[in-house]
Amino acid sequence: MQLIYLSPLPWSSFAQRPQKFVRWFHEVTGGDVLWVEPYPSRFPILSDLKKLRVSDRTERDTSESWLTVVNPSALPIEPLPGSGVINGYLMWRNALSVIKTFSRKKETLLVIGKPTVLALKVLSLLKDTKSIYDAMDDFPSFYEGISKKAMSRREIAITKQVSSLLVSSTDLKKKWETLRPDLTVIPNALDTEMLPKIETEFKAGSKIVIGYVGTIGAWFDWTWVIELAKARPADTIRIIGPVYNQPKQHLPKNIELLPACSHKEAISAMLHFDVAIIPFLQNVLTKSVDPIKYYEFKALGLPIISTRFGEMAYRKDEFGVYLCDEHELLGFSVESALKYKANSNELEDFKAKNSWSSRFANIGITH
């Protein structure tokens, strides 16, 4: 068996669910993979200019013999009727030819990671091929106006046509279970091979470090972070990652902003945290999110203070997880978190149950 993966993010970006799935697939089946890079699927907006100046890409190897990366170009006109005809004729002929040729080699699995017009064309082109839509986000919520409506229509069309639907969170299950009651919930997970052996009694240092690693996007709650810094003026609040959403307020002196880094460097940075935070706003962007950083923080034995967004809202009773939206209670939450002591046996059990291989084994691909 081989795989065609239409990805929502570039192969060279910080490794997430799509890259983890692709590597797992190759390890399990030994099959080749055709990775199709994303392209603009909405009208350009002003904030896109800011993203050109910030990158979360890494030097990811594309030379593996089993991997082929295809980068389809596209005019940013996808919400318009007929965009598929224009892009199909002007931009996608080579990519579609590569996809068709690749699919003829042997039994193929098609996985769609983002609902696009190209994905619909590939579904039509490979109509007898087993297909999966992996709904890892509520994609229409990231769009506005005509782009949002077009994305919603495409997503429904793809969901109806694919052989199987995977969803990554409880709220995505609620969204799709009426249309596709046969869906499978595959939560996010962690790369256990990236994690060092944890000494549960370690201390990062004499000064308390409260940290976050990840993208600072439109969903990042700067007000929450600033109030946390004010509540804990003697502690360091360390924020690591690409900044797409600049704070609109002056940052207290105890907030450190560090640039994006590799996954390996990110894990190393987490080992210097006493407390981890996931400060996301509660809105349509985060309602369906199951943050991978939760699994990494948890597996490293770190206590986690989070807002009640997305899948985190369902983890209020977990040992070591402290949900806090009230700014006046942030200091108290830190004090509670600092009392948390991870158990090494529980950490090993957590890692085994929440590895990517354990997650994807539920899909039923064995050869």
Task: Describe this protein's structure.
- It is built from 13 helices and 13 strands.
- Residues 51-59 have low confidence and may be disordered.
- The longest helix is centred in the middle third of the chain and has 17 residues, at 145-161.
- The termini are close together.
- The chain has 2 domains: 2-186, Rossmann fold; 192-352, Rossmann fold, CATH 3.40.50.
- It is 33% helix and 15% strand.
- It is α/β, with parallel strands linked by helices.
- It is globular.
Kindly summarize this structure in a few lines.
The protein is an alpha/beta fold and 367 residues long. The protein has 13 helices and 13 strands.
Topology:
Layout: E1 2-6, H1 17-29, E2 33-36, H2 47-52, E3 67-70, H3 83-90, H4 93-103, E4 108-112, H5 117-125, E5 130-135, H6 145-161, E6 164-167, H7 170-176, E7 184-185, E8 209-213, H8 222-231, E9 236-240, E10 255-258, H9 263-270, E11 275-278, H10 292-299, E12 304-306, E13 321-323, H11 330-338, H12 344-353, H13 356-360
